[in-house]
Amino acid sequence: MNALKIKKGATSHSAYNLRPTFSDVVEQHTLAVLVDNEAGVLARVIGLFSGRGYNIESLTVAEVDHTGKRSRITIVTRGTPQVIEQIKAQLGRIIPVHQVNDLTVEGPSVERELALIKVEGSGDKRVEALRLADIFRAKVVDSTHTSFVFELTGAPDKIDAFAELMRPLGLVELARTGVAALSRGGEA
Amino acid sequence: MARQMSGAKMVVQALKDQGVDTVFGYPGGAVLPIYDEIFQQNDIRHVLVRHEQGAIHAAEGYARSTGKPGVALVTSGPGATNAVTGLTDALLDSIPLVVLSGQVPTFMIGTDGFQEADTVGITRPCTKHNWLVQDTDDLARILHSGFHVATSGRPGPVLIDIPKDVQFATGTYQPKPKATEYRYQPRLKADVEDLTELVAALETAKRPVFYTGGGVINSGPAASQLLRELVEATGVPITSTLMGLGAYPASGEKWLGMLGMHGLYEANMAMHDCDLMICIGARFDDRITGRTDAFSPNSLKAHIDIDPSSINKVIHVDFPIVGDIAHVLEDLLRIWKARGRQMNREGLAKWWKKIEGWREVKCLTYKTSDKIIKPQYALERLEALTKDRDRYITTEVGQHQMWAAQFLGFEDPNRWMTSGGLGTMGYGFPASIGVQMAHPESLVINVAGEASWLMNMQEMGTAVQYRLPVKQFILNNERLGMVRQWQELLHGERYSSSWSEALPDFVKLAEAFGAKGIQCSDPADLDDAIMEMLNYDGPVIFDCLVEKHENCFPMIPSGKAHNEMLLGDASTKGAIEVGGAVLV
């Protein structure tokens, strides 16, 4: 449907990006879904994933156009190429969905996630946590004599790496926003 | 010409503006204002059903036999939850429905009020779209959008949940917009380059086959007309799914019969051995494909569908074409003609010779009897005695449904109403009521099994109240025939709960409702009994006592390929292997 953004010339005779759909290889894709910000729209998207047995690795949603009342949902999902194509087509079928973009195949994109990390400890561990935070360019947004809350922005694997390093130093709690992503370059 | 009126009045006004003449429904507390408005006008007929499931199936029957959207009206809570089966049925079979449900007043939503249910939450996965109307000023716009969404693109059911205070409040009525004013505009025309590539493949194919489905009928009468022209001009054999019967006439010489699990031998063999399969408005359902990794292994496949999500969902295709069937077939024919109407005539002649060989198998042959009525014989006689009439057929679900598809011939679209995707027992009787409401002068027959028919038998009250002369042709084997057949095949003949005990006396049942009952058990009496049914001006329950242990053949056992069909009198023991047993 119109909501499915089709790159012309993907293959010689197809309206679709026909990568081999027989492949069993599970891929991770980041999808950007532009929707009308109306009651129940998130439930429709999530219900599609649970009802048809698709995975959600992360999901973020917020209104991005207040006058047009549009929200952008960014979903990181995993599946075989056939499943990914199905997910995109099924999303395109939801009435309040305007556009579905697969940022993983439609050219280079940037992905960022924000995390808040609470670390509790004293002495050498506390000093080491602060030193590592500096290396990762994490900001201290709260501190007591025995704890820090760090704010870190980056690609998901950077946040994974930082959290792993903090674990032996007294990681107490981790909050992540999930991925927000945009394509690189000047075009929407 | 915006006008001020109450929400309830808006509902009736919008239905009139959308050309609705019939609404199937059941009143209740949360829809009383709408029923009050219906009472005060004469343009829209309201048909009082006896259960909300009946209302939805009746609306489906109305929709499928007219090509117009079916409309139903139910109350909140149990009214809406009773509609869920019908909504799911319509979603899987792509039937356009607009279902209006009452809801508790907006200020009570979320308080577990009397007859409150989260109707939009419950029906979200079983509708194409649904709305909860929060403001009377939005109501007219949403009602018109509902009709647009239900009937555009791949049709489907929509539900509009209307709280009682929204019905009472006054708001501004928005007139019906033009179709082009909606944002939802599914793609109708396919790319010419894509079609040209398909035409090139068609021109050289040695063993092509058309595999058509309900999408052809949903696309409208023009699509069926174009399909017929395409088949006659190219000489390509054609088969169809259960849902697509009638798009191409059963008497047409290129007709192979229905395909799939209980399809004809020649149709399934042609699907398996073809070198070019052109799927038109069908969706490679598991009843069609059998084992997907052995499905038509040596063919190029084209798929024409208005819904992009149908393409490459189950079977990978080489020519994916998104568009409306009528638009696509028109372009396809034009391109084929412009390129000189070429076909591989030599290859086609050989292909037809092969198909003739398969036809010789006569896969629908069954053991006849002069003592007991065979279900196949009953349908053969029904066909012989009614085929020349202005006839509509509905069915329930099970063996009788498959035999009806095999033994009745459909010459035109919109004449055959059956629950394909969901397989809803209890569909056929209310559907026949919906069909008869739309076509009061026509012959409407519901081919039923006794078990399915009992699931919505309360609708006898509706049939009698509205003097609808629907004929309930019940093939009574006192069994859940298809369940019994599967238990014979794969559960060691342990017939767990698959017989109908304590059945009513159907003749007395009919009489109790004020209708006519006929029972027949002797093949010699069958013709006269059927004629008695046809000649009676009113609803009839025809209790046709048939052979109790007849199995439905041909059959592709689950987990098998098209060329591994079982034919009549085949031993069914061990036909389904362990791997296939987990499939339904």
What does this structure look like?
Chain A is of the alpha+beta class. In chain A, the strands form two sheets. In chain A, strands 5, 6, 7, 8 and 9 form a five-stranded antiparallel β-sheet that branches. A four-stranded antiparallel β-sheet of chain A has the order 2-3-1-4, covered by helices on one side. In chain A, strand 6 and strand 7 form a beta hairpin. The mean pLDDT of chain B is 96. Chain B has 584 residues and is an alpha/beta fold. In chain B, the strands form four sheets. Chain B has a six-stranded parallel β-sheet with strand order 3-2-4-5-7-6. Chain B has a six-stranded parallel β-sheet with strand order 11-10-9-12-13-14, with helices on both faces. Chain B is built from 24 helices and 20 strands. In chain B, strand 6, helix 7 and strand 7 form a beta-alpha-beta unit. At the A-B interface, helix 1 and helix 2 of A face helix 9 and strand 14 of B.
Provide the descriptors you would attach to this structure in a database record.
A: alpha+beta; five-stranded antiparallel sheet; four-stranded antiparallel sheet; 4 helices; B: six-stranded parallel sheet; 17% strand
What's the mean pLDDT score of chain A? 90
**Contiguous helical run count of chain A:** 4
What is the tally of beta strands of chain A? 9
**What fraction of residues of chain A sit in β-strands?**
35-45%
Structural class of chain B: alpha/beta
| Helix-and-strand structural type of chain A | alpha+beta
Largest interface: A-B, 26 and 32 residues
Residues in helix, % of chain B: 25-40%
Q: Kindly provide the radius of gyration of chain A, computed on alpha-carbon positions and rounded to a whole number of angstroms.
A: 20 Å
**What is the CA-CA span between the terminal residues of chain A?**
19 Å
Radius of gyration of chain B: 24 Å
Between the first and last Cα atoms of chain B, what is the distance in angstroms? 55 Å
Question: Largest sheet of chain B, order of strands side by side?
Answer: 3-2-4-5-7-6
List the quaternary state of the chains: heterodimer
The helix fraction of chain A, in percent, is 25-40%
Give the H and E element order of chain A.
EHEEHEEHEEHEE
Largest sheet features of chain A:
5 strands, antiparallel
> In percent terms, what proportion of residues of chain B is strand?
15-25%
Q: What shape does the CA trace of chain B take?
A: globular
Low-pLDDT residue intervals, each spanning 5 or more residues of chain A: 1-19
Describe the main β-sheet of chain B briefly.
6 strands, parallel
